[in-house]
Amino acid sequence: MSARVLRWARKRQGLDPHTTTLTSRRIYILPTAIGLIFALTAFAMLLGSMNYNNNLSFVLTFMLVALGFVAMHQCQRNLVGLDVSFAGVEPVHATRPLEFRIAVHNRSKNRRYNVQVYDGRIVSDIRDIPAGESRVFRLEYPTRQRGRMAVPRFGIRSNFPFEMFRAWSWVHMDLEALVWPAQASDVPPPPAALTATGHRQHDARGEEDFAGLRGYSDGDSPRHVAWKAYARSGELLSKQFAGADTSSQWFDFDTLDSTDTERRLSILTRWVVDAELLQRDYGLRLPGHEFPPAHGDAQRQACLRALALFDEKRGS
Predict the structure, then answer these.
(1) First CA to last CA across the chain, in angstroms?
(2) Distances in Å between the alpha carbon of 236 and those of 13, 204, 224, 229, 279?
(3) Is the pTM of this model over 0.85?
(4) C-alpha closest to that of 246 among 181, 190, 179, 292
(5) Where are the transmembrane segments (predicted)?
(6) CA atoms lying within 13 Å on the CB side of residue 182
(7) CATH classification of 2-180, choosing from 2.60.40.10, 3.30.1330.40, 3.40.30.10, 1.10.3720.10?
(8) Which of 84, 121, 140, 285 is the least crowded, having the fewest Cβ atoms under 10 Å away?
(9) What are phi and psi of 6, to 5 degrees?
């Protein structure tokens, strides 16, 4: 039944953009256990009032019923008009939690109370959203294996006021994140580095032979930023060196002894992470794909992405 309801909601609403405004027609509401007890109590009071024909009892009963209707209306209006948007997700290694960030913006002049983002048993914290402000909710998903992880939908809900009703809306954004292979804990030593002398310019080693300045690029070490030049001109530049010894390593999938594909990918992942921490050039060879030696965030991201999508790369 739950699966059918979710398929019906997806067909009714369609695919949502990465910024979606909640309208009244897409917000659902049902009484909670507290609301059902409240309704039964009010019905019992109504029967007692009719039995004894007590006017004060009628007044109290109708006041409680009116309070219930006001609470139902307010609960539904607490979500109407909220802007829900995807605020990003960072790749992680397998076995670490993957955190999807969902931003909710309140454009109205009224504060919104007890708002929560959820996906089944995965829930965010419950927060209030002041008028004109935004709050970022986090959904943490456990990861067990590398590859793509999809979140086809999530919900946003509230039980304000009195927790007698629960209003919610489903959002279908088809979010996706990347899970890198887990880092192997016991790895063989990486292959020996290959050294070349004075054959190219390099910005990470050979500091004894300054060759000039070049534009700053992502991944450059802060130690090589020309801070004095930045203070004078306000432009970020990196120091460049030439004629120095440079070394690089090749990490090759086919040369590993293990017959387990996932074990090989975990070893390569560990080597990539360690080489990046040491600021060493490294290249990666996978069946059908090769990354020339380099270092920096772009190199790390490209290599880890290829390792995470290893089966897809081979299939292509």
Answers:
(1) 38
(2) 47, 16, 11, 8, 20
(3) no
(4) 292
(5) 27-50, 56-72
(6) 13
(7) 2.60.40.10
(8) 121
(9) -65, -40
